[in-house]
Amino acid sequence: MTDLASRSAFAGLDLLASAVLLVGADGRITYANTAAEHLLESSLKALSRLQLTALFVNADELDGLCQQALEHKYADLRQDLTLERIGREPLQVHSIVSATGNEIVIELRENVQQLKLDREERILDQSQVNKELIRNLAHEIKNPLGGIRGAAQLLELELPAVHLVALREYTQVIIKEADRLQTLVDRLLAPHRRPHIVGDVNIHEVCERVRSLMLAEFPSGLSIRRDYDASIPEFRGDMEQLIQAVLNIARNAAQALHLRIEAGDAELVFHTRVARQVTLAKVRYGLALDLHIIDNGPGISPQIRDRIFYPLVSGRDGGSGLGLTLAQTFVQQHLGVIECESRPGLTDFRILLPLP
Known about the structure:
Layout: H1 3-9, E1 19-23, E2 29-32, H2 34-40, H3 44-47, H4 60-70, E3 77-85, E4 88-100, E5 103-110, H5 112-158, H6 164-193, E6 199-201, H7 203-217, E7 222-227, E8 235-237, H8 239-256, H9 258-263, E9 266-280, E10 283-295, H10 323-332, E11 337-343, E12 346-354
Parallel strand pairs: 7-9
Antiparallel strand pairs: 1-2, 1-5, 3-4, 4-5, 6-8, 9-10, 10-12, 11-12
Helix pairs in contact: 5-6, 7-8, 8-10
């Protein structure tokens, strides 16, 4: 059957959101709907030349389900699978395998919950590595930095009067650059030094503080829209840390919006809701704060999208690359997580925090 004929015969399957493969008794793929082409990143023409076992490195388990279906041992077989592919990310899917005559129908649905758990685990692991790296790097920089600054000051005192004005310019450059690096190191170490001051936190007070600071910093061209759920309860936390986390995200957004601010149509949205049955760091919570900070800017460059929470990674010239790293650290100290979705015209930073 040609690709066109296959498309016509199984046109209804293209309406499904889940991936569907039809496999012959010989194990060769005879049809893949549009969702399957998208999931497997391959066309029907390419897939129809392949055996099912050639699609995945560990296809034996899926092939075993197909054989059981052909033997009509079960009406259908359902199983969560991790399908590994050469040179690509593994697929976390829920599979449903059934047989119709001599053909096998395989439905693959991406396991969104598993993907989310894996993403959160990567963020937590990355954050832990970042913390160790920052602490070690900051201490390694700080020790010689004091010596460099002190030596420059002593050198300045020893300069002959006749050359003082001319040479003092160079010693001041050393001192000022040492001070700048000291400030950077202090910022890197700040989340680990400052004690966690816990009190009752109203998230809308946090948002309003940030809103007033942002409007003072960007008095024209930027509008900040509020979409609050007034039923969100107070929770225990460090209000100053949460203000700093939200402020860092909002300020990053505003800086990315500079062209829209000049045009007068830049917008930030603070959106709060309650999320139910949320898993954070492998712990299940009945209720969680769901705070979104949304902007209508150009979006985050794909080159750095997966690394935006790494220290010293910045999407703009002159950026320190610490704002989002510190925000993630502060939120994680509250047992929460920051997620990000971005495309041109919309960037959405989502803060999830457990609620009592």
